[in-house]
Amino acid sequence: MDTRVALVTGAGRGIGAATARRAAQAGFDVVVGFLRDEAAAEGVAAEVRALGRRALAVPADVATEAGVLALFAACDGAFGRLDALVNNAGVVDVAARVDEMSEARLQRMFTVNVVGPMLCAREAVRRMSTRRGGRGGAIVNVSSAAARLGSPGQYVDYAASKAAIDTFTRGLALEVAADGVRVNAVRPGIIDTGIHASGGQPDRAARLAPTVPMQRAGTADEVAEAIVWLLGDAAGYVTGALLDVSGGR
After folding, report:
1. Chain Cα centroid distance, residue 88
2. ∠218-223-224 over CA atoms, to 5°?
3. Cα separation of 75 and 126, whole Å?
């Protein structure tokens, strides 16, 4: 079989889960990476299988090198190839000013949101790069509109971590363009997912919807459509791009 394989981190819920489903619809077998909620991840894997594609749910803490290596080893063992990586796993925290933030909060934010995606991209490039004997492939990093808005009074640390992802996306894209690997990012705006609850603001999407030029929050499926387009052949001449999916915000 020559079916392409996509690995999606943080795929048990929200944008990651929607991306896993949309990737399956586009013909990818899917590795569903997750941290804690095994039942949710297995549910996403079951949805992928119902769409006629193979799926594997893998528990892995991508904020650690050991977790990243285990995740990619599981992909190797199950599918023997990797064609696409979606760096979706990430965290926010409760609203706070910078002068209220602890070192522990900052370390967690940048370890999960920056170091983790860079380690995952490293492993993906090692498998995809034609320079290393691979077939090429595509990486999509999930950034945020916060990277250009700054999120003052809410989470400047989160915004800064996503700005780092933007810079990383551009640099890696140029580094591996001749190796058959495309690297792009999507920057979601206010999206109605559970991540807001994890930051202590479960009503945030509804509350901020009127501030969006389109007057509504976006959906995880709308972001997933953009991600999977960037993974596919239709985006074959797109690399180093930062695609806003933010309703004009």
Report:
1. 2
2. 135
3. 13
The active-site residue, picked from 34, 155, 158, 229, is 158
In degrees rounded to 5, what are phi and psi of residue 125?
A: -65, -40
- The answer to whether the beta carbons of residues 215 and 243 sit under 8 Å apart is no
Query: Residues 119-176: pLDDT tens digits?
Result: 999 999 999 999 999 999 999 999 999 999 999 999 999 999 999 999 999 999 999 9
Domains of the chain: 5-244 (3.40.50.720)
Q: Is-catalytic flag, 158?
A: yes
Specify the pTM: 0.94
* Ramachandran quadrant class, 87 (left: phi over 0; alpha: psi -120 to 50; beta: rest): beta
Single-letter residue type at 113: N
Tokens of 151: 């999120």
